[in-house]
User: Fold these one by one.
Assistant:
Number 1:
Amino acid sequence: MKILQLLRDNASREKRPTNLVRNGAEASLYIYDVIDPWWGVSATAVVEALAQVADAELLNVYINSPGGDVFEGRAIMAALRRFSGRTVAHIDSLCASAATSIALACNEVEMADGAFFMIHNASGLVWGDKTDMRETADLLEKVEGSIVDDYTKKTGKDAADVIAWMDAETWFNAAEALEHGFVDRVTTATTTSNNWNLSAFAKAPKALAQPIKPPALPAPGKSMGPANANRLRLLQVV
């Protein structure tokens, strides 16, 4: 299961909290970790953050994530779609797997030149007999159907094209993501160096092969709430 390998391979890296910065009528949310309820950015943390800036006119969502739990990602996606202000996703370095749904939940998506956008098939872990295996395969197909629908709505592409890209585990650079409609514009902003071990993926570009220690995130403008604070303390203890 790719998410388990991703968490295992990156277990020793510095955990990256969900940072929230408020500046007048604008707010910025930094999603710089695996999408996971225990070992990365959780939907609960994002909901807590959005509640603190519910009156903001603009929310900038900065993304550098290899993906993770598809259901956690879709919960974050739903929370962003409920946000009353305008939302802009900024793909700073890597937006892969479940993180792509988070980006596409925003009203606009911009991608830094040099960043990558990756889509692939859903994966899961199952133990049991042939009936269990078939039920899990059916569930994965339903999950993928929802993801394909999101991609086709954003890009205007045929479902067959999107499915083929997912089957192939396709890594789009910024120009390709723009060409195919996944993003609305490309910026020349300096990208964040890759800090992930991406061995869980079969076709990660060579440019992302060597993880580099990332720069520090901006200091949060407000507390993320007791639940997230406790989670961060737990991660520090572990």
Number 2:
Amino acid sequence: MKLDVRRATRAWEPTTVLRGDLEDARELLEELDSAVVLTGAGISTASGVPDYRGPRAQRATPMMYSEFVADEANRRRYWARNYQGWEHLGRADPNVGHRALAQWEGTGHPTSLVGVITQNVDGLHEAAGQQRLVTLHGRSAEVICLDCGQVTRRADLQPRLAALNPDVEPRRDMGHAELRPDADAVVDEWHDFVVPECLNCGGVLKPHVVFFGEPVPKDRVREAFAWCDRADALLVAGSSLTVMSGLRFARYMHKQSKPVVVVNQGATRADELATVRLDAPTSEVLTRLVNGVAMPGQASGHGSREAG
């Protein structure tokens, strides 16, 4: 399944479907034996990582995989942007939402957690200690050679980029509108940027992430669907599910008559499928859900059950 760049860059839309509240979500999960969680960029915004489609997100067209592999100039432009973005996003730390999911895995509350499927490439779930994790779109902390397949650390590439481009000073403080969640920053001057080759074979280097127009590796998709089969419910946290790589899991669970809980600020493509649909900060909801704490203004244990 390939990512749809036209849908991926659409503007943020407000939520129009709301169903239930945090206590409804908690009660639903506590009555089941297990759940699987699907996360998107919305869980990482509290860590300073921007999203693609939030209310503050910059409207932009990410580089397509076909563009990257076909044209050296495109690769030069991409790596010039990534060089700037990595300097900022490489310092991001997990927030309370990431830590809540890792805690959920360890405690089994509010129900047993089969695992976390993430569309994010920022590595913050791993940093928080999540063990059962499928990274659908790869990890920005790694670089792959498209010729020999060798995978190396992105951190090791940064000094090589700096040495080859001594006149380019990485910006350490970038605004939300200047960054994208895969460390792809807005850069105007890139035509003279020098991109290093693979140290192993001299081949073309690419971030070890799934670009738009590039298929998600089949083994990751198989494992994610296997977790959905094992789980009794799906909780979507911080994703608009605009691209099919994430939406298909919500549709799959709904087709099997398994509950889908959606927590996201703004509309999602699974709103109509949701048993419980919350519009609230993702990290706050996850923290309260795992720790059994009600949302402000909400009586613990008594959901409003508003129909959407």
Number 3:
Amino acid sequence: MRTIRSLTTVAPGILFAEGPASNWTVFHGRGHVELVDCGYPADRPLVEESIRATELDVEALKRIIVTHGHSDHLGAARAYSEGSGVEVLAAASELPNVRREVTEQVTVADLMPVALRRGTIPWAVAAIRAGGLGDVGVPSAQAITADVIALSTGHRLEVLPTPGHTSGHACFFEPDADVLITGDALVTGHALLNDAGELQQLPTFFHHDADGAEASARRLSLCDARWVLPGHGPALRL
């Protein structure tokens, strides 16, 4: 049974959801909800549970901003877009991946060299069961057109380009709360990592451009944040 690992209020109107295998952030206020990422497709009930935890209904969801176009971050974004008219945004250079005009995602061939590593096969099976191979592309996704996104909730997000994990991966910084959302540029845990609870990169084979991912991670380490909200692993208070 899929359950939320934890819900953490990191600042007024900012709720971090640590999902079964990937995470999302719920911004809420002024009667509106906006998400950054939304887990795997199978996490849709959990996403809606996290929205209700803010004492708002799912109908309050106005927009989903994605760090990158992997299935464990796009989740049910297409269903929300087509069914409820929810706007989906990503960095312009990430749109081909989000729309599935191209696919920058780990493949079975990428996993073969590490298939015997402890945890690889259980992780892969769980990812597939969660919808990791599903048709999650969002044809209607639009490009982020500003350096700072003003949210309908009263928050604002500074856009930090962090290419490497994917070509157009982006992170987001909420300056009023000093909250950094890192997607998969930096994580604090993953089924295929030995350590948990500290900032680190995913295994190299997950990255479209490993050198670029390392450079982006170094730049993020200079960001003056009080909270780091990663795509995988628990929230980290600095």
Number 4:
Amino acid sequence: TLKVEITEGVIMENAESAVAILAELKNLEIQLYIDDFGTGYSSLSRLHTFPTDALKIDRAFVSRMTEDEGNEAIVQTILILASHLGMDVIAEGIETIEQLNLLRALQCEYGQGYFFSKPIDSIAASLLIESQPKW
């Protein structure tokens, strides 16, 4: 399945056109993710009108959530909102076991970041997957 990530800013620049284009992509069975969610561009009143599959929580919230309860609350709110809208959530920028454990406690199912691996090529990615790491 092809998955396309679109930043909040791009969607919100011309929301009406974006909805039409996103709907066309969904008709082609392309999964749509809103990247950098929570960085200030989204209109929550419009979020449910976008035909998206997942929200990606911006790393700025994830990186500070173990140090600041306000950021933890934002992450938790995004998780609850996405759940009610039938969307998946991917937490970006996981760098520590503490962040991973907190995200698990908040029932975040997907994450990415340097804690798991720095960017690698397809051969190294295949080897990593085959090693079946237990995070």
